[in-house]
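FAQ: What does the model actually see?

It sees only this:
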Amino acid sequence: MTVDVLILCTHNSARSILAEGMLNHWAKRLARDVRGHSAGSQPGGRVNPLAIEVLHEAGVDTSGFRSKSWDEYASPGAPALSIVITVCDSAAAETCPVFIAAGGQPVRVHWGYSDPSGAEGGEEGRRRAFELTRQAIGYRMLQLLALPLETMDRPALQAALNDIAGR
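And it is asked to produce this:
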């Protein structure tokens, strides 16, 4: 059974894209049946080129990445989501649509990251911020993939995801 994870950020151009890329990259390398998706409440229409750049440098396949609305995951035919992760504070505070899940509503957790697009230090400062954000997100995705996702009940999964968040 595939475990589908949706990562949300308002514009779906940086943090959620980094998370989708890292989750799918590690899931493939670890032979886990986990699939990451990303979306935004107000998609910006384009993926930040620095997100693609740092993912490429880490060996992540970014083909098919695009900025998309979370509405795609709240409609019939969408993947049955097990987990929804917000990665920016504005998306965490928004009222999400009803997502489809195999056993009811998916488990939700907030793993906040600063927006690397607004980092100081010019282009080099932003590039460094994107790389550090990619590394931090990648580490959390490894922690998620270390969980026995297929056998965890909702309360145990929620507790484990909150532990990863440091709550």
